[in-house]
Amino acid sequence: MNLIDQLKLKAKKNKRTIVLPEGEDARIIEAASRIIKDDLADVILIGNEVKIKNIASELNVNINGAKIIDPISSSKKQEYADILYELRKHKGMTHEEASTKILEPVYFGLMLVKTGQADGLVGGAVHSSADLLRPALQIIKASPSSSIVSSFFIMKVPNCNYGDNGLFIFADCGLVAHPNSAELADIAIQTADVAKDLCNMEPKVALLSFSTKGSAKDLTIDSIKETLNILNSKRPDIKVDGELQVDAAIVPEIALVKAPGSPAAGSANVLIFPDINSGNIGYKLVERLANAQAIGPLCCGFDKPVNDLSRGCSVDDIVKAIIITSVQAQKMDKKVCD
């Protein structure tokens, strides 16, 4: 059974409510119909009800199980505007501005999550990453245990014995441009937890570099060494090593030569890139040259799950994001109970 099928089973066992703020987009509507048909989550679509139902009819899909909310006619709009004002008044937001902002689908959808009417949000099919994640950071915010919100990709490489039988988590490939040592440590911790909680992997984390264990000297390498020290102090339970070149991180024979005795080298399944340039280049190279499946970008570190789609996303991409967001919400609830 592949990873997505495993996640579908998890999503079905304890359904969550996911809000889709771009409810008038045809791809979102078709994805919602698939989620409803397979009973994977409860869905809230934000937008004009007549328009959404007309598009569904044109697509010949059934969205009868979805809840549709139009912010303009919602009885909650003033309540949510008041909450938004309280959250942002220290930044100069006025009551009038809050009342205008809350009519925007992303802001309204995020407020549903903030107030517990939904468990998570998936957007970005229409909106840019900045237009989705900026208000998410303002309204949902980072979790109390996180100093940063980061992103990751689940990478499945066919016919590959490296990683977890070809399964890897790459981070950060899409959000934090130039993390400092402390931020990179938090990204590594978040991503290791994702590997364990979402993918049932025993995380083995490699802090990637152009150097392995002092084979070169550079200020960036000093920063990675500091990251390793922070990680070992904050989370001694995580198997991690760095700095490691990619071959030393994933190839056992090379690890024996370049990093003997390492807890992660040669078997790493969580690859932490030093910056967004290398991360973005890395995942796209693997996706295109190795014909790998790349699921993401997905977010971690929010107080409640919010995930960002590419504006070029397919219906399948949206369905996967909704399933993953549902399982993330389950895991967050469990941690709160624990």
What this model shows, in words?
With 338 residues, this protein is of the alpha/beta class. The chain has two domains: 3-141, Rossmann fold; 150-293, 3-Layer(aba) Sandwich (Rossmann fold), CATH 3.40.50. The chain has 13 helices and eleven strands. It has a six-stranded mixed sheet with strand order 8-7-9-6-5-10, sandwiched between helices. Strands 3-2-1-4-11 form a five-stranded parallel sheet, sandwiched between helices. The model has no long low-confidence stretch (mean pLDDT 94).
How much of the sequence lies in strands comes to 15-25%
- Tally the structural domains: 2
CATH class of the largest domain: Alpha Beta
The CATH architecture of the largest domain can be named as: 3-Layer(aba) Sandwich
Order of helices and strands: HEHEHEHHHEHEEHEHEHHEHEEH
Summary keywords:
338 residues; alpha/beta; Rossmann fold; 2 domains; 13 helices
Topology:
Layout: H1 3-13, E1 17-20, H2 26-37, E2 42-46, H3 49-59, E3 67-69, H4 77-88, H5 95-101, H6 105-114, E4 120-123, H7 129-139, E5 150-156, E6 167-171, H8 181-199, E7 204-208, H9 219-234, E8 239-244, H10 246-250, H11 252-258, E9 270-272, H12 276-289, E10 293-300, E11 306-308, H13 315-337
Parallel strand pairs: 1-2, 1-4, 2-3, 4-11, 6-9, 7-8, 7-9
Antiparallel strand pairs: 5-6, 5-10
Helix pairs in contact: 1-13, 2-13, 4-5, 6-7, 8-9
